[in-house]
Design a protein that fits this description.
Strand order of the largest sheet: 2-3-4-6-5
Radius of gyration: 22 Å
Keywords: Membrane, Transmembrane, Transmembrane helix
CATH class of the largest domain: Mainly Beta
GO molecular function: single-stranded DNA binding; telomerase inhibitor activity; telomeric DNA binding
CATH architecture of the largest domain: Beta Barrel
Number of helices: 3
Strand content: 25-35%
Structural class: alpha/beta
Distance between the termini: 69 Å
InterPro entries: NA-bd_OB-fold, Ten1_animal_plant
Organism: Rhynchospora tenuis
CATH superfamily of the largest domain: Nucleic acid-binding proteins
Oligomer: single chain
Protein name: CST complex subunit TEN1
């Protein structure tokens, strides 16, 4: 028997590589020695490696949620499509425990949210929530529901500042 026996293992999955590299990247970036001159080169290196990594939400079939205000969710909107992944924020008006349907609104528009996939979220009427999920449109365009996959409470969110940041990011991305 050889003194060193190598165990040949299959390569780790790409998401494990992404996690480890992200951990190392952020720990290096937070180090006081590298925070000055080297941080820009580290960021470029990180972006280069991550762009070559094959793990992404898209490879899993999960689309990112497009951030919208509820009042922007109109039939004339380009994002008003069955299956469109959206990120919506609203005040909880009602919650039906028996079918796990939440009703959120922004003062003008209301929307039903199916919360069956959200297990660790507690609901409090009058609190503000943000949901990411897929839009389900019924036979009537007014009959719509968000099938939530992520939800969080955002009571401390400054809604005016949030709306301004959405507008600025859309200008930057050329969505307007």
């Amino acid at each position: 028997m050889a003194p060193f026996q190598f165990l040949f293992l299959p390569p780790p999955p790409p998401h494990l590589f992404y996690f480890l590299f992200s951990f190392l990247f952020f720990s290096l970036l937070s180090s006081p020695l590298l925070s000055g001159l080297c941080s820009l080169s580290i960021v470029k290196m990180f972006l280069g490696v991550v762009s070559q990594c094959s793990f992404s939400m898209a490879s899993l079939g999960i689309k990112p949620g497009v951030p919208l205000m509820l009042r922007e969710l109109q039939p004339s909107s380009p994002f008003f499509k069955h299956g469109q992944s959206l990120r919506l924020t609203g005040k909880l008006e009602a919650y039906h425990v028996e079918n796990r349907i939440a009703v959120i609104s922004d003062g003008v528009v209301t929307l039903k949210v199916n919360t069956r996939n959200l297990t660790d979220l507690t609901f409090c009427i009058g609190s503000w929530y943000q949901f990411i999920g897929e839009l389900v449109i019924g036979l009537d365009s007014n009959d719509m529901l968000l099938q939530a996959r992520v939800g969080r409470i955002v009571d401390g969110l400054d809604l005016n500042l949030y709306q301004q940041s959405l507008h600025l990011s859309r200008n930057l991305m050329g969505w307007i």
